[in-house]
Amino acid sequence: MFKSVFKSKDDEKENLRKIVKLLDMRYAQMAIEIERLKNLGQKIDRIEAKVLNIDDTISSTGIKLQQRTIAVKTKEAIRMILQKYNEITPAQLSKLIKLSRTRCNEYLKQMEDEGTMMSRVDSRKKFYSLRQ
Hints:
By secondary structure, the chain is mainly alpha-helical. It folds into two domains: 8-61; 70-130, Arc Repressor Mutant, subunit A, CATH 1.10.10.10. It contains five helices and three strands; from the N terminus they run αααβααββ. A hairpin with a 2-residue loop joins β2 (117-122) and β3. The protein is elongated and about 95 Å long.
């Protein structure tokens, strides 16, 4: 009767074995993960060395890389689109490059002020094209 209420020593030993087995599995998993992280660190070191090598090569040739702003990249994309379509409205451009119509209009006006494009009005729409 008392044995059913209290756990026997065999049950306690079995529980301890299960806990030790679980801890061993967790330890093995941690060891594997640590090894993966070491490999990742080595890969990062190799990539960093390659980047430094590329930087050294670029600086030794005297080539200066320019950082292009988003505005410059967007204007280049607009030029490429206008080369393909010849003429476009700000609404059409906004659908193509996923910017608001107002923002596209601002870019087009800037490019017109710079002299890279021209515009014409047909009824209520303004069409922009590259300057020849």
